[in-house]
Write a structure and sequence with these properties.
The protein is an alpha+beta fold. The protein has one domain: S16 Ribosomal Protein, Chain: A, CATH 3.30.1320.10. Helix content is 33%, strand content 36%. It is built from 2 helices and 5 strands.
C-alpha cells in the first residue's frame, strides 16, 4: 500500500521535510515514488507547499496520508477554497 508521509531532510537542529508518496513498508527516509510537497516547521506562518492535485490523485488511488500530512492537506484545501472564493 502507498502512504503519503514526511521524509526528513536537513541537518541537526534544522530539519525540513518532503511530503512524499512511498510504499508503506519502507523506512522513513527510503526511496520514494513521488514528491508532492515540502514542510518546514521552523518557518512562521504558511510553512508548507503542497500540490493538491497530486495529493488528491494519490488518495483516489488508495494512498493513506499520515496524521501530519492529512493536517497539511486540510490546511491547503482551506487556503485554496478561500482563494477561489475571492
Amino acid at each position: 500500500m502507498v502512504a503519503l508521509r514526511l521524509t526528513r531532510k536537513g541537518t541537526k537542529d534544522k530539519p525540513y521535510y518532503k511530503i512524499v508518496a512511498v510504499d508503506s513498508r519502507k523506512r522513513r527516509d527510503a526511496r520514494y515514488i513521488e514528491q508532492i510537497g515540502t514542510y518546514d516547521p521552523l518557518l512562521p506562518g504558511a510553512n508548507y507547499t503542497l500540490d493538491l492535485e497530486k495529493a488528491d490523485g494519490w488518495i483516489s488511488k488508495g494512498a493513506q496520508p499520515s496524521e501530519t500530512v492529512a493536517s497539511i492537506i486540510k490546511k491547503a484545501r482551506k487556503v485554496s477554497d478561500a482563494a477561489s472564493e475571492v
